[in-house]
Amino acid sequence: MKAIFIWQLFTFPDIFECTIKVYYKSSPSSSNGLEPKNSDGNGNCTWSWKVGTRTTPGDWKIVLTAEGAGQIETYFTVTE
């Protein structure tokens, strides 16, 4: 499985450093692809990571932070 997540900062045209933390049942994810990023000229931060085949199905929290712009929490769903 692969997850792609796009976060629109609505801060055009500023550039921010963005971080993402993905929390599964057992622990926060350390998957490749979840490294800090700089938003593009349109204020977008984009991450892509693989969801393990043994990941427990359910709704899992994502915490997104943009330096100087704030933080939000959202959820995504893993299905079988």
What can you tell me about this protein's structure?
This protein is mainly β. It has a single domain (2-78), classed as Immunoglobulin-like (Sandwich). Helices cover 0% and strands 51% of the residues. It contains no helices and six strands. The protein has strands at 2-8, 17-23, 37-38, 44-50, 58-66, 70-78. It has a four-stranded antiparallel β-sheet, with no helix packed on it. Strand 5 (58-66) and strand 6 (70-78) form a beta hairpin. The termini are close together.
Question: What's the gist of this structure?
Answer:
With 80 residues, the protein is mostly beta strands. The chain has no helices and 6 strands.
Give the strand tally: 6
Binned strand content: over 45%
Total domain count: 1
Total helices: the number is 0
Give Rg in angstroms: 13 Å
Taken from the alpha-carbon principal axes, the silhouette is: elongated
SS-based class: mainly beta
Helix % is under 10%
Report, as a whole number of angstroms, the end-to-end distance.
Answer: 10 Å
Biggest β-sheet strands, sense, barrel: 4 strands, antiparallel
Low-confidence stretches: none
Return the average pLDDT rounded to an integer: 80
Strand numbers in spatial order across the main sheet: 3-2-5-6
Question: According to CATH, what is the class?
Answer: Mainly Beta
